[in-house]
């Protein structure tokens, strides 16, 4: 399979998952103890959509990576979540965090088939 075909399939898969989960953040918005960033995401449709897109991209990418690279990806995700939490209720900061993470995940995806 060519890289182009994989990228097209990846984009298609994201659009399907995102449409199925259009109003579902990656965490329970009805939970009693939401952190400030989570509450802001639940209250803001654009941030909610960014969360769904990021989680879907992360999960699809995780499935394509070898075990060592998958561990690195998970460590990066954990660090990113801490960074997002530092935004507290600042929607602009949260949006910037999602934009940055989606860009990073996209770059990781592009590099999957590159020679070592």
UniProtKB/TrEMBL annotation:
Q: Which residues form the signal peptide?
A: 1-24
Mind listing the UniProt keywords for this protein, alphabetically?
A: Signal
InterPro entries reported for this sequence = Lysozyme_Inhibitor_LprI, UCP037256
Source taxon at top rank: Bacteria
Q: Name one GO cellular component term.
A: extracellular region
What is the name listed in the Swiss-Prot or TrEMBL entry for this protein? Lysozyme inhibitor LprI N-terminal domain-containing protein
């Amino acid at each position: 399979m060519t890289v182009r075909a994989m990228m097209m399939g990846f984009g298609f898969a994201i659009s399907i998952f995102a449409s199925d989960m259009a109003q579902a953040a990656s965490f329970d918005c009805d939970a009693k103890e939401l952190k400030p960033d989570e509450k802001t995401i639940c209250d803001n449709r654009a941030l909610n959509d960014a969360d769904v897109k990021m989680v879907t991209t992360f999960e699809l990418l995780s499935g394509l990576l070898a075990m060592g690279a998958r561990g690195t990806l998970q460590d990066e995700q954990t660090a990113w979540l801490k960074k997002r939490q530092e935004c507290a209720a600042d929607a602009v900061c949260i949006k910037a965090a999602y934009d940055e993470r989606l860009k990073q995940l996209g770059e990781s995806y592009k590099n999957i088939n590159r020679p070592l």
